[in-house]
Amino acid sequence: MASTDRKKPVLATVAALAGVSAPTVSKVLNGRDDVSAATRARVQAALEELGYESPVQRRARSSGPAMVDLVIDGIKTYYPLEVLTGILDYAAVAGVEIVLGNITPGKMRSANHEQWAQHMLESGRKGLILVTSEVTAKQLESFHRRNIPVVVIDPLNPPNHGIVSVGSTNWAGGKAATEHLLDLGHRRIAYLGGPAGAECSVARQHGYLAALMARGVPSRPEYMVSESFSHDFGVRGTRALLALADRPTAIFAGSDSTALGVLEEARRQGLRIPEDLSLVGFDGTNVTEQTLPRLTSVAQPLKEMGRVALRSVLRMADGEVLDSRRVELATELVIRDSTAAPAGLAA
Amino acid sequence: MASTDRKKPVLATVAALAGVSAPTVSKVLNGRDDVSAATRARVQAALEELGYESPVQRRARSSGPAMVDLVIDGIKTYYPLEVLTGILDYAAVAGVEIVLGNITPGKMRSANHEQWAQHMLESGRKGLILVTSEVTAKQLESFHRRNIPVVVIDPLNPPNHGIVSVGSTNWAGGKAATEHLLDLGHRRIAYLGGPAGAECSVARQHGYLAALMARGVPSRPEYMVSESFSHDFGVRGTRALLALADRPTAIFAGSDSTALGVLEEARRQGLRIPEDLSLVGFDGTNVTEQTLPRLTSVAQPLKEMGRVALRSVLRMADGEVLDSRRVELATELVIRDSTAAPAGLAA
DNA sequence: CTGAAAGCGCTTACAG
DNA sequence: CTGAAAGCGCTTACAG
Fold it and tell me: Ranges for the HTH lacI-type domain (chains A, B) (predicted)?
């Protein structure tokens, strides 16, 4: 932000400001761990105040577009695809390059984060965007120590760690979906959620519970199953739900992919949708328009989420302080053809 | 290629080999002009012989996965999406990172290629993959001079320039599509092709012509319109074809996107497909299964094309000499529901 | 955990 | 045009 911009700051300048020696600054820059937390903090502050860039970074920057890393799980489904589209849209505007690494969220756990973060630093990468990934505090530390901004879109984490994240109003979305089903006359409504502890799924479920509670409809544990956002879980979850003595008349799926699985299994069991079973998805991806019947779903502004994530990374890289560690964009329930009054109430 | 690989060559090593001082090598590296042509040549030869890399380059390269640049036009349609999927598949196997630049094929013409190639060099990029782009000899030269391998998937070029390219058996595909329509009894068959001069589209058209000729069906100039592979052109092209006194009974579209446009315009004019108009697409992307009726199409192995392109770039970067400048993978006609006998012949 | 000292590799300023 | 000398900025090895 402030002041001291006379000349390009060099390592010695930073050392002077921080009141340490040049070797110590060098260690901080290279992410070595033989530096005390207090000293490291002072050096980081000095680096930030002076806006120090290493020769590598300066060179990488002066010689062309900046790079931002992206970890995204394939582009087989619409969810990551739309997020990627949003990111690339903004990348074109901001003139940055997006690096698709070969580390998928599944491999995130096992990857050597120290090495990876170091590589990012040395290649002059501006920051990192993770899409639906789980990040541990320790992993985050590798990037934090090197001043590499990280933003997660819909983290699969229990909400903590001080992760900077972008998502949508999951709670409100879950509530809207459930209220819609209640309005249609449903009372036996099930929720098929994502990975245990995933912030976004938990919020959706709480929105669902809030809607039930507001109408005085008791929630039932057997109607709430959470495991993953996959198609496959939609199939298995539905099989379990339909095997109950007191079958639900409506299913609220935590993702559109899961809803597709529900659709598949319901069809296999000879149930018509929406006549015999109402179904609401979550995400609002293009598939909702391609299924038969078209899928009622809570739309997330996925492209916008991608754009915002990249913008946030770039802001952090510029030393700006974000207003909030968490950005939530509005969801919107889009009613299509997969929901109707339950059989008993039909005209 | 040869010999002298004991240790990482440093600037002084190069100077020794060239019989000059370190400052002189530095000048050559930095493009300064106070070096005689003869000395410069000697230094350049030494640089090449030793495979000298600047610290920046060495660092970028040795510290992690290699990078390959990719220029692809959005991911809105299935074509680039599937190619990208194939590239990323192989990237994961080969352990390389894919850099999605902000240069889309449309901007390729205007971009400063010298600067871009220089940036690639300095960032340690291994090579460049272009998807359905047009490349001029002059542009290619910028990369060639820096020893940066370039591979184009389905180039939109007149076939020359010695471009290394990957594609599919377009001629055979065009022939197969047309033979299928002829077999059904069609004689008035139109072709809606891609950009004028695009190698792949021209080959498809020649396959079409070859099939007509083999059956003694005369070709008609008014039945052959080439402009682009877009949806929009499918609409406009169809409007023009259906305005002819002697309407075609079948349309062979140069891409699935174009076929979608044909479908849209035919529907708008109240024509049923395949009863009133038969339609064959090209690409065999997922959309062919999602339209109503499902689209008969010549499938290209798009993922495989992506994989092969990346593999070729990496081979070239390793100094391997490719067997052939052009790789063609097999196409396959997949018959679905958009083709039938012409109205006059129907049962 | 810290830094004085030595070192590395490249670049600059300047004398010839 | 060329290079000995000085310099720059960062890193390494090691003593405390």
Answer: 9-63
